[in-house]
Amino acid sequence: MELLCIQSQEHPKLPQCELKAVIECEEMEATLNVITEGLVIVSGISEENIDEYYQILTRRLGYTHEVHQILKTSNVSDFDEDILSLDWQDYIDENFAVRVKRFNSDIDTVAFERNAGALILEKCNNIKVRLKNPKSLVRLVAFKDIIYIAIEKYHLDKKHFEDIKPHKRPFFYPGSMSPKLARCMVNLSRVKAGQLLLDPFCGTGGILIEAGLIGCKVVGSDVNWKMKNGSAINLDYCGIKDYRTFHLDVRELKMYEKVASVVTDPPYGISTSTGDIDGDDIFKEFFHAIYDNMAEDAYLCMASPHYVDLNPMIDEVGFELVEQYSIKMHRSLTRIISVIKKSHTK
Ligand SMILES: C[S@@+](CC[C@H](N)C(=O)[O-])C[C@H]1O[C@@H](n2cnc3c(N)ncnc32)[C@H](O)[C@@H]1O
Question: Is the pLDDT of residue 345 over 70?
Fold first, then answer.
């Protein structure tokens, strides 16, 4: 069985790599096929696993807009016959809408929506078309000549990422990253629900919130007590219960338990203070401080500015780089997202 993911195209790689990391850490028996940017299919899923995997993906992913279960892979010429071959009463509850999304295709979306709606109605009694807030959504995805006929069984709540933007939280301070990027970084760190995640530069708690919302236990620390208190206020506001926050310089970090994941956005530039640490030394100090606090198989996902070369520091401390992405912020700043783990050759 197959799940089709419609993803954000705001970055060419991060949405697929986030999905790949979730498949990996959740130990899903599935294969990821990138059809084109924004369209990815997770295939080879057994009937036994499909619902569980579907729910994990909709609960976790940041850069994916929608997840659907593929009912049939059709094409423009066989479309009517294929739509009619499906037992729609098994998938539609009272009312439905058909929506088309195109990738490298020039099919007439309105005509396809109308035609598919009419064919489904022809097959089933007791269901109606409802364009606004339908109970069931039939999603047709056209890619070149192929048409994936799919149904949305679990909804991915994108609204959360709007509602929880930094300026909408009770404690605000400039410099917090977007909730979607924070969620993506949590996922890239391969952490699972119930495991312990640490952000030692927690600021207003943006990363801790996203990790808490997917069910992680979270710990945050910050050298500034206002941030430490502010992140607790924001975590309470988001209904996250399993958290601890500490007022601490990263150099004093000594965790009560080794962590399964570290996700963080260290301070840089003139807008954030680094305690009394000079320039790039904050990164070096951070790597040394964090190493012994991480479990052997833990991952670290961090942001840094393009002008800081992390690679020699990563090697020196005994870490190894797993993957790296760049995000252009503005003309003079590119943010680098690095996924790092402990090296077994240290
Ligand atoms: C870029 S901000 C983190 C933003 C955070 N992700 C958020 O959602 O608000 C960096 C944070 O590191 C903290 N910081 C600076 N130097 C530190 C140090 N030596 N030890 C611990 N925290 C430090 C700052 O107080 C600031 O809150």
Answer: no
> For ligand 1, is residue 275 a contact (CB within 6 Å)?
yes
pTM of the model: 0.96
Tokens 């010429």 found at:
77
- Cα of first residue to Cα of last residue in the chain, in angstroms, is 42
Is ligand 1 within 6 A of the CB of residue 201? Answer: yes
Q: Is the CB of 176 under 6 A from ligand 1?
A: yes
pLDDT in tens, 57-95: 999 999 999 999 999 999 999 999 999 999 999 999 999
Q: Is 341 helix (H, G, I), strand (E, B) or coil?
A: strand
Q: Assess whether 17 and 52 both reside in one domain.
A: yes
List the CATH number of the domain containing 246: 3.40.50.150
Maximum Cα–Cα distance across the chain? 72
114 and 230 within one domain: no
Between the CA of 301 and the centroid of ligand 1 the distance, in Å, is: 15
- pLDDT tens, 251-298? 999 999 999 999 999 998 655 566 666 667 899 999 999 999 999 999
Name the nearest CA neighbour of 290 among 169, 160, 189, 152: 189
Q: Is 117 in the pocket of ligand 1 (CB under 6 A)?
A: no
Number of domains in the chain: 2
Determine whether the shortest distance from the Cβ of 223 to ligand 1 is under 6 A.
yes
The whole-number average pLDDT for the span 37-62 is 98
Q: Which atom of ligand 1 is nearest to 205's Cα?
A: 8
Do 128 and 267 belong together in one domain?
no
Q: Is 230 in the pocket of ligand 1 (CB under 6 A)?
A: no
Q: Give me the pLDDT at residue 268, please.
A: 82
Q: What is the helix (H) or strand (E) element at residue 262, kind and residue range?
A: strand 259-264
Same domain flag for 145 and 164: no
For the chain, give me the number of helices (H) and strands (E)? 10, 15
Distance between CA atoms of 267 and 302, rounded to whole angstroms? 11
pLDDT one-digit tens code per residue, 222-246: 999 999 999 999 999 999 999 999 9
Q: What integer is the mean pLDDT of 14-26? A: 98
CA-nearest residue, atom 8 of ligand 1: 206
Mutate to test the pocket of ligand 1, among 184, 222, 265 (most ligand atoms within 8 A of CB): 222
Domain match, 223 and 136 both = no
Q: Is 267 in the pocket of ligand 1 (CB under 6 A)?
A: yes
Residue 232: which domain range?
160-342
